[in-house]
Amino acid sequence: xxxxxxxxxxxxxxxxxxxxxxxxxxxxxxxxxxxxxxxxxxxxxxxxxxxxxxxxxxxxxxxxxxxxxxxxxxxxxxxxxxxxxxxxxxxxxxxxxxxxxxxxxxxxxxxxxxxxxxxxxxxxxxxxxxxxxxxxxxxxxxxxxxxxxxxxxxxxxxxxxxxxxxxxxxxxxxxxxxxxxxxxxxxxxxxxxxxxxxxxxxxxxxxxxxxxxxxxxxxxxxxxxxxxxxxxxxxxxxxxxxxxxxxxxxxxxxxxxxxxxxxxxxxxxxxxxxxxxxxxxxxxxxxxxxxxxxxxxxxxxxxxxxxxxxxxxxxxxxxxxxxxxxxxxxxxxxxxxxxxxxxxxxxxxxxxxxxxxxxxxxxxxxxxxxxxxxxxxxxxxxxxxxxx
Length: 388
What we know:
Elements: H1 6-22, E1 27-30, H2 33-40, E2 55-59, E3 65-69, H3 73-77, E4 83-87, H4 97-108, E5 112-116, H5 128-137, E6 141-145, H6 147-154, H7 159-179, H8 189-202, E7 207-217, E8 236-246, E9 249-250, E10 253-259, H9 264-282, H10 290-306, E11 319-321, E12 328-331, E13 345-348, E14 351-355, E15 358-361, E16 364-368, E17 373-375, E18 386-387
Parallel strand pairs: 1-5, 3-4, 5-6, 10-18
Antiparallel strand pairs: 1-2, 2-3, 7-8, 8-9, 8-10, 11-12, 11-13, 13-16, 14-15, 16-17
Helix pairs in contact: 4-5, 9-10
């Protein structure tokens, strides 16, 4: 089914309310698209228009209250949210702040702690001027960070969330597994990626919101840009990294393809990278930390770097959380001590700059289980696939 039953959203709100009581947050103000969707179920890309802010208020003991532009009222009424206040928008001189102020005062009366998305990997989707105006209007209230408790909830996926993520990863895995049959020398990166995107859609995906692609002789020099008109030549290694969605939930992983004759040092680097990912997977179980996974993978890369011309990892982290957003906390990095827990979904993504300007990356998606992990992606080949 698309979306979730009402009970799923009520459980999410209840989980937040429990955290709010622990951290003494009287009301949480939600403004960002993904958190708004997480708690309400509203499925819309209307967020791509930055003109109108949307607000959701979650207090400790009541159902959420929405304060939204009038254009969204009909759509939001189709969700489980019952209490909705609106204003005509755009209205730059007062973009919902008066209605929002009065609604908060009616909930909390004269004072209280208001939690906002102002911390780690979070953002307010309202202008800073309007945020300052709201704080001025509510000068008796204290505005504090609620990002920590929101992420504590979202990092642990429900069974239904897991099934949605498992499905989109399966779709992308199948397309990746068959891509080698349809690509060849002298095709451009754009031609290959366009074919790949069509296959994703025809196999049941909804949207490809992120697709980076790069190629070069023996490796590539970046992993974040769109495909180019570059033609694949003998000796090139191509990477495609896809963030494709189903019912709002992302997959995020990549695959590498060699074209023609690949130099031994590049093949060796790929083998080292695969071994690093394997070692990282072995540490992916409850009780270990994100730093444990990072250190295990980095030790493989550093060992090779010490015995050759290889230069190891240069991107800072080697994996992250995954869900309604392409990247979510936690981060697989040396200083992230987040303890792995059952039902987290993570990417394991070692990056290897084996020569200056020559990068290789392997990425897998996993589910943390009670005793270890479940590989959700079909595993990257141990030996670099070759296209002739």
